[in-house]
Amino acid sequence: MKESIVNKQNEVEVVSEKMKNSAAVVAFKYQGLTVEAFQALRKEMRQNGCEISVLKNNISARAAKACGYDELCDAFVGPIAVAFSQSDVVAPAKLLFKAAGMENSKVEVVKGVVDGDVYNFDQLKTLSQLPSYETLLTQLAAGMLGTVSQLAIGLNMLVEKGQEA
Questions:
Q1: Which of 47, 109, 129, 132 sits most deeply, having the most CB atoms within 10 A of its CB?
Q2: Is the distance from CB of 113 to CB of 19 less than 8 angstroms?
């Protein structure tokens, strides 16, 4: 086999392994972004535990197919970059939609994979509007604490009423 074919096969294996090990993978269009804007997006993604890769569409599509994400393959048309997140499933979508919402932005989210399921644009937009994991835990704890405190107050009232009788 030619060396170039072997190199491409190795690259497909590396990308498919990265896709398998990622909690979230989001494909997005970036055409029209300045180099400075793209570098700023890349830096912000890195600060939030994400990574952006600009790959050849053929390699990305083959890697997606190797991972079993056949529905993701049609997203790789034209200039497409891919954002990977190893741990946070919400971060890539949230950051990309934030960048897409900026004035004169050229970022356009196409499709993604979250925890092994292929998400379309609308599903990713809904996911991006969720609060962070830490915020959800705080809300859960506050809700549970409120219920427990109300229970304690009610039980205390019953005990005081029983002592009076």
A1: 109
A2: yes
| Tens digit of each residue's pLDDT (9 = 90 or more) over 111-128 | 999 988 999 999 999 888
Residues 87 and 28 in one domain: yes
Same domain, 58 and 74: yes
Residue 99 gets which letter from DSSP?
A: H
Domain with 150, as residue range(s), is 131-165
First to last CA, the chain: 93
Residue 143 and residue 116 in one domain: no
Please, what is the average pLDDT of the chain? 88
Q: How far apart are CA 126 and CA 141, in angstroms?
A: 23
Over residues 87-101, the pLDDT tens digits come to 888 889 898 988 888
